[in-house]
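Structure ticket #2291
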Amino acid sequence: MTLEWEQVIVHSVDPAALGQWWADALGWVVVHTSDDEFEIRPAPDRMPGLDFVRTDEIKKSKSRLHLDFRPEDQAAEVARLVAHGARRVDIGQGEQSWVVLADPEGNEFCILGQRSQ
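Resolution: structure written out below.
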């Protein structure tokens, strides 16, 4: 059996707004939109992507799944994302080498520190 990872589904109250926020934050392209769905990918033919799907439920607790990103310059990337609308959040991580942020709907993601050699 062979599986190809196509996308991560993100439930969202406003898929278009949140999907566009992530497209802008990541520099990705929009590959599909409808009233209830907004899909982005690194490039039209590259996967995996993120697919934002409408839900009426507002996020109420810590996410069970989140994305980790490793930038070249952690401080600059955190500053850029906060200026773009992300916010720092405390999910009980304590003092760590990564920074936990949340997107406009409260979905947590991490900006990792420099990779150890």
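Closing remark: Strands lie at 7-12, 29-34, 37-41, 49-54, 67-69, 87-88, 99-102, 108-111.
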